Amino acid sequence: MSTKEKISEELLLEEEALEVNEIVLFNDDVNTFDHVIETLMSVCDHTPEQAEQCSLIVHHNGKCTVKTGIYKELEPRCSKLLEAGLSAEIV
């Protein structure tokens, strides 16, 4: 096995070891579409189109994954969503 292959294999193993989590946004009867869209754009760095699509998915399906990543990067974003009055959790 060459050094390059060994390094590539080690990187793949490290990537698998990092557990990927998701922020799931839940539907509510309180927040407006505009508020949800603006919050997703500012907190989750969504484009206007992404934020609108997520808000529609949440409205119709009751929930939607709005961001994926490692827990320590998602936690402050989820906290900001909650502070904005949205219902979200990290799974």
Automatic annotation (TrEMBL):
Limits of the Adaptor protein ClpS core domain: 22-83
Coiled coil region boundaries: none
Domain of life: Bacteria
UniProt keyword annotations, A-Z: Hydrolase, Protease
Gene Ontology molecular function terms on file: peptidase activity
Gene Ontology BP, a term: proteolysis
Entry protein name: ATP-dependent Clp protease adaptor protein ClpS
